[in-house]
Amino acid sequence: MARGDVPQDRRVGDRYFQGRLAGANSTTGTLGANHTGPADAFNFNNWVTLLSQLPLLLFTLLNSFLYQCLGPADTHSAPLMSSIPETVRILGSLLVILLLFTLTAALVKVDMSPGPFFSITMASVWFINFLQGSLFGQLGTMPSTYSTLFLSGQGLAGIFAALAMLMSMASGVDAQTSALGYFITPCVGVLVSIVCYLSLPNLEFARYYLAKKPLQAQGQEMETKAELLQSDEKNGIPNSPQKAALTLDLDSEKEPELEPEEPQKPGKPSVFVVFRKIWLTAMCLVLVFTVTLSVFPAITAMVTSSTSPGKWSQFFNPICCFLLFNVMDWLGRSLTSYFLWPNKDSRLLPLLVCLRILFVPLFMLCHVPERSRLPILFPQDAYFITFMLLFAVSNGYLMSLTMCLAPRQVLPHEKEVAGTLMTFFLALGLSCGAALSFLFKALL
């Protein structure tokens, strides 16, 4: 499985930023108010999406080349990686991220012209996502079956962010206090993450995998996996991809006992050989995220309610765009824990992925008042809500499905390379979609 996924950092606070970039005083108005004018010249949603994906793309590209040139054993011992202890890298990254979020919250109280404010915000976005590379690497030390849980957790993080935005808007306080409360929320979240990471050494399960001594603890690993399977059976948990993966791991580890006299040691897997096996699945993953990031949130955040001004029009986009997307995206990711359809040999998967391209014109023809070229063909709110439901569920499910199917298309010793490649193509799709969002916004 992949070593990590792109952080689902939804721009639920973009209206606050649009207000600041338009030159509006942050102490007046309402956080949920629409802002037009000079803010559009900055293309805030487009830039923040692009700059949040490029660091992941660079990390995964570097990781792929290091694996091919040095191999899995050498990459762990490379001077660049080993010069800084893993604990220091992760804790240091979390502390700097906490500092950057604190800076973002503090800027709410600072009067600043739009230009410098935009530059500082974009720099913070870049460095926050750049530092997350160390955090994604931690997932690689855990069993591959935990990747689905990791992806679901990211979906829940998006839901939490959307709810925090809605609560800040519904609080009834002035825009400055509301925005300050919203940006303090991630600071608390990072603090909780630091406490949880410091608590890992107290868990026997975590100590085992963080020790990175597979040769000395191979028997214990098989015993742990067997206990997990037995525990699932006792609790009445049905067969799932995670359980099947554990069974396959146990079978593959017991195989050498049949031929103890001459154990077969597979050679270093080639990135190009693995890519030839998973190229279609990888291209599907690229297209899924290219479509998603090309319109979300750059285009979808501009859609407004067609009803008369009021409470519903104020909360329409935060609820129907950001909250709805995150909830349905999380649901789609979670579905792969119960079934995987279509399977790895089906040609239906590329067809379903290609059909998602239709969402691009559908969203662009919704009720976006700030347009000069395309007409509005779907003005009613029901159209946008329906499109968003299908768009979000398909994004979460097809993303998680492709990440689960890729390791099943390669040999056991090639799974790590397959996971690394899929993470790279995931980042490539995100970056391509973010770049295309500039074009689609210009076509409106």
From TrEMBL:
Molecular-function annotations in GO: uridine transmembrane transporter activity
The record's section on Pfam families has:
Nucleoside_tran
Annotated GO biological processes are:
adenine transport; adenosine transport; guanine transport; hypoxanthine transport; thymine transport
InterPro entries from the UniProt entry:
ENT1/ENT2, Eqnu_transpt, MFS_trans_sf
Q: Which domain of life is it from?
A: Eukaryota
Location in or out of the cell: Apical cell membrane; Basolateral cell membrane
What Gene Ontology cellular component terms go with this record?
apical plasma membrane; basolateral plasma membrane
Q: Name the family the entry cites.
A: Belongs to the SLC29A/ENT transporter (TC 2.A.57) family.
Q: What does this protein do?
A: Bidirectional uniporter involved in the facilitative transport of nucleosides and nucleobases, and contributes to maintaining their cellular homeostasis. Functions as a Na(+)-independent, passive transporter. Involved in the transport of nucleosides such as inosine, adenosine, uridine, thymidine, cytidine and guanosine. Also able to transport purine nucleobases (hypoxanthine, adenine, guanine) and pyrimidine nucleobases (thymine, uracil). Involved in nucleoside transport at basolateral membrane of kidney cells, allowing liver absorption of nucleoside metabolites.
- Quote the protein name from its UniProt record: Equilibrative nucleoside transporter 2
In its UniProt entry, the species of origin is given as Diceros bicornis minor (South-central black rhinoceros)
